[in-house]
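User: I'm preparing a small set of examples for a lab meeting where we compare how different chains pack in three dimensions. I only have the primary sequence for this one, and I'd like the structure in token form so I can line it up with the others. Please keep the answer compact; I'll paste it straight into my notes.
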Amino acid sequence: QVRLVESGGGLVQAGGSLRLSCAASGSIFSINAMGWYRQAPGKQRELVALISSGDYANYADSVKGRFTISRDNTNKMGYLQMNSLSPEDTAVYYCNAQGSTRDYHPFASWGQGIQVTVSS
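Assistant: Understood. Below is the structure token output for the 120-residue chain.
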């Protein structure tokens, strides 16, 4: 079983920065894609950023130029550096990872989510 745990969320003023971390643990053989999603109150969950095993990154238009996704394969960590935050970025942020377990079964796991609140 693969577990993802997010950290680094909280309250920040508009224009500020936060760095989210995602720690993966469990029976992991490899992690292919890692992604960050967010869900604001009354809205659907949306993709924020995605990074492949080859470090190719994709971003939602709303965060391009402000957010940076990265990963540390050795330590099974994912990160989301968020700069120039605005109140519109307020949401619960979720980490997602897809890959293979040690017995070569595919997995797709979600973290429990972490709150990011940006005050104006």
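A couple of notes for your slides: The radius of gyration is 14 Å. The chain has a mean pLDDT of 97.

User: Perfect, thanks.
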